[in-house]
Amino acid sequence: MIKFSDKQLKIPKLMRPVYLATVGMSKFDRAFPETRTEELCIQALTAAADFVNMTPSELKQYIHTCYYGHFADHFGDQLLGESVIHDRLGLDPLGNIGVKTGGATGGSTMWEAVKAVASGYSDCALALGWERMDEVPTDEGNHLISAAADKDWETPLGHIYTGYYAVMAQRYWKIFGKEEDSFRDTMAEIAVKNRGYARMNPYAHGPMKITIEDVKNSPLVAYPLRVLDCCLMSVGSACGIVCDEKTAYEITDNPLRIYIAAGSHTLRVADRRNMAIPLLPNENPETYKDLGKRFPGSDRYPGFTGFLAARMAAYYAYRMAGIGDPIEDLDVIELHDAFTISDIQSYEDVGLRHYGEGRDYIESGDAYLINPKTKKPGKLPSNLSGGLIGCMHAVGATGLMQIAEIGYHIWNRWDEIHEPQEKWDEFNRKKPDDWASLQVKDAKRGLAISHAGVGSHVTATILMNPNNLLKED
Amino acid sequence: MPKTENEKGFVDVVNGRYKPKGVFHILEANQPIFNKDTGKLVGITNPRDMTYIHSYGGEAPFFEGLGKGKLIASRCDNDKCNTKGSIYQPFRIYCPDCLRKNTIIDMTDLAKTTAKIHSYIITHRSGAFNSLPIPIKFINVEFEGVVTILMSVLAVGEPEIDKRVVPIFNTKAPTYTITDLRFVVEGTSESELPEGFTF
To answer: Which of B46, B97, B178 sits opposite A156 (nearest CB)?
Structure first.
């Protein structure tokens, strides 16, 4: 049993309030054979300027330091890719740095930018991420991804990251899912939901109108996971610009407050040791007293069934921002749905449900914009962008895309970004005849979870309308 | 096509320095990529064949042990450490808590008598450079008294949670990689083992 000290569990504090002034995204796709990475990054930054009615030149005048999220140098065959992008964005001679934390790279990039502003080093910082995953064949891509596991102890075992991840899914499936057909259906429902929401998103490259049966009949990847349970592999860019209060209000009349925290855990799941469950504000020591009885085999924490890094990111972030119960205090959420089953696991890590009860978040209808059971608004809609399963997973950009999508809801400008026919035409995508707005009505607060691999890094970003804060500074 | 001996790179260490010999990369010309619809140039291929020189450092005893039929682990014996006595498999050179060097121990017998499956997955896909037979049966193995859970593959039998397994080792033609260690379900006979492997 390992323990953490009070100093390690200190709730992080930003030395001054930080605001999200604007965000932007490029089109996302599986491949861009005729587009260079910098073109996608320029698309994202230009979109951020458009969003606050500025030219890119005007917006750039505010930026003081730059944080670039780009995970896999070997995919793009370019070391110091950050310098290439920085130059092409015309941001020299500003200080810049690259951030790499696997699938959480986008969130971690924002983490760095927020700290730069909070500390006073910068009044305005750019967080911009991208990924280029189309420059090698898929099997070599699988090898390159597996190189993010331990190269001596894991990579030689199949050179396939899904295998290292899916052993956790298997354990969760057996212990908490109890191998029930109904649980399998709930997993599939997530794929149906997220791909369905992606249909309303012109940026998304995995939209599908499918059924639970379609998911269950899709090709097997690693039991119980099938192709339609798994996220996309994408190319694209996304960004956000964070500022102190004065600068934020110079850029826009409506900046959002931003809080962010990060957690980590072992790169190899093999190294996970036992510990007590770190409790979120909506839990108490009694919450898990009989967990082992209700779910035999769940006596190890986090074992293979929880993500400690996600739990710690939420542990810090909720207390930073004053969140008591995420279901009650938040209005919209973007989760890292790398796989349907890991999406369920993360509901528990971030406290949407207690450990062992994650499936209920879907089955209750809370996770939908409109609860399919009650036909009323869902309590906390998740992944209205389509998530990683339906929208994209361009690793370094993913966490920033999620933050942007949460922002659009709180700004009440989701329709403006996703509806215009011109955007669908520009991206050469067909707008569905049954297109419908997914704007969350009166959204005031949201959360985005950015997650790496088997759980080595996770960030939790909370956005709030400044008029609806939960805690005094 | 596998490389011939003349196309491979080899390395020794002499007087504390790497001494490479042989071929470490093979040059291959790039090829243009054209858009078949427009006839215009889109880009180029960048073929590359390289061989890395990698040190196992303090983990070398583990990888050398596999070829000798031994499962080497490590244990923290620091009296001042809160987690003294913890046995690590995967082998850790240093204790993650006190950062003192762990004691190297042989846990082959412990593995033979207590190993069982904690979780597993069967995958029909692999990445480039995979050397394992498909489908791959990934297993995570618990050992009595070991605080971590080793990832490996099941070479013979069907995986189930809590099923007893025993280690096998590539002792006849070791590759000195983690693939020299695999597991089989308890009761497997020597004749069922993959080529080159022994108990």
So the answer is: B178
Mean per-residue pLDDT for A426-430? 97
Contact A156 B42 (CB under 8 A): no
**Structure-block tokens of residue A253:** 């009349």
Contacts of B126 in chain A (CB under 8 A): 139, 142, 158-160
| Beta-bridge partner residues of B72 | B106
| Nearest alpha-carbon partner for A239 in A462, A459, A49, A24 | A24
CA angle at B192 for the pair B187 and B196, rounded to the nearest 5°: 120
Query: Helix (H) and strand (E) counts for chain A?
Result: 19, 11
- Residue of A167, A172, A301 for testing the chain B interface, max B β-carbons within 10 Å: A167
Summarize the confidence of residues A227-245 as an average pLDDT: 96
Distance CA(A75)–CA(A393), nearest Å, equals 14
Which residue in B46, B54, B56 is closest to A77 by CB distance? B46
DSSP symbol at A247: H
**Gap between the Cα atoms of A154 and A355, Å rounded:** 28
Reported ipTM: 0.86
> Contact A160/B123, CB-based, under 8 Å?
yes
The pLDDT tens digits for A190-215 are: 999 999 999 999 999 999 999 999 99
Interface test with B, best of A139, A160, A341 (most B CBs within 10 A): A160
Q: Which residue has the tokens 């403006």?
A: A416
What is the pLDDT at residue A306?
93
Judged by a CB distance cut-off of 8 A, whether residue B45 touches chain A is: no
Q: Which of A296, A348, A325 lies closest to A455 in space, CA to CA?
A: A348
Cβ contacts of B128 on chain A, cutoff 8 Å: 137, 139-140, 142-143, 159
From CA B113, how far away is CA A15, in angstroms rounded?
Answer: 56
pLDDT at A59 over 90: yes
What is the three-class DSSP state of A389?
A: helix
DSSP string of A113-179?
HHHHHHHTS-SEEEEEEEE---SS-HHHHHHHHHTTS-TTTTTTTTT-HHHHHHHHHHHHHHHTSTT
> Cβ contact (<8 Å) for B125 and A222?
yes
pLDDT above 90 covers a percentage of chain B that reads: 85
The pLDDT-based confidence of A222 (bands split at 50, 70, 90) is: confident
pLDDT value of residue A122: 98
